[in-house]
Amino acid sequence: MDALIVAEPSRLSNPKSGKSTQFAIFAQNGVLDYEVISKGKSAHSSIPDLGINAIDNLHEYMNQQKKYFDNVAQINDSVLGKVIPVNSIISGGEQVNSVPAYAKLITKVRTTTIVNANRIISDLEDMIMELNRVADNNLELNVLRQLDPVVTSKDSPIIQLVSLYGQAFFKQKIALETVAGTTDAATFISENDQMDIVQIGPGNDTSHMANEYIGKQDFLDYIDFIKKIIVTYLNDSLVKDI
């Protein structure tokens, strides 16, 4: 496969003007989901010195992680910008009168081609190894999900066709944008990293909201639009004339 169209929403409505802005996504950030587990030793809260506080040790790790991401956030990818880390879930402890023997942090990072998942994993493993040198620290890192960034040249045939026919179909110039979110493109690119990918599809400002919807006519219009691109793309002589 040489190219892929991801038909996820890439259109925003403008209630004031009554018009919609159509754009196409030519690049998206990668994803790294991981958990850091802190293991301690339970004890009664009245004699905490007999235990090892897993939450306190995880808190120290989180301080170091924040310093790390503050530093790498200064590295700007020319297409995808900066990495975006978010601590999403934290849990730990068993009961209020015990020293917690277990704590866990789950983090999601939107990666770039410069600061990619492999680099971050290696750096965090080194950080944890150093922290575990301290007595009573017992931290471990587990990767939950890893997807590479997807970047397609604006000069690729599929992008050029989207721009060409998009203007005719939607009566406006198609803006080429990047997005931090992830689509199925990241899964497909893992099997074929030479494939050109573009995201363009019907939608509006209701994405990921309750009662998300698209208009019936919008849906039908996009079918004709995408069919036009596919037919032209598969006709080598037409593509060469773009």
Write up this protein:
The protein is an alpha+beta fold. The protein has two domains: 117 residues, Aminopeptidase, CATH 3.40.630; 118 residues, Alpha-Beta Plaits. It is built from six helices and twelve strands. The strands form four sheets. Strands 2, 3, 10 and 11 form a four-stranded mixed β-sheet that branches. Strands 6-8-4-9 form a four-stranded antiparallel β-sheet. Strands 1-12 form a two-stranded parallel ribbon. A hairpin with a 4-residue loop joins strand 2 and strand 3. The mean pLDDT is 90.
CATH C-level class of the largest domain is: Alpha Beta
- The ordered string of helix (H) and strand (E) elements is EEEEEHEEEHEEHEHEHH
Architecture per CATH nomenclature, i.e. the level-2 architecture of the largest domain: 2-Layer Sandwich
Beta-strand share of residues: 25-35%
Intertermini distance:
21 Å
Overall domain count: 2
Mean pLDDT: 90
Per DSSP E runs of 2 or more residues, the count of β-strands stands at 12
Shape: elongated
Low-confidence stretches: none
**Main sheet overview:** 4 strands, mixed
List keywords for this structure.
about 240 residues; alpha+beta; Aminopeptidase; Alpha-Beta Plaits; 2 domains; four-stranded mixed β-sheet; 6 helices; 12 strands
Show the helix and strand layout.
Elements: E1 3-6, E2 11-14, E3 19-28, E4 30-39, E5 43-44, H1 54-72, E6 84-92, E7 98-99, E8 102-111, H2 117-131, E9 139-147, E10 150-151, H3 157-170, E11 175-179, H4 185-189, E12 196-199, H5 216-234, H6 236-240
Parallel strand pairs: 1-12, 3-11
Antiparallel strand pairs: 2-3, 3-10, 4-8, 4-9, 5-7, 6-8
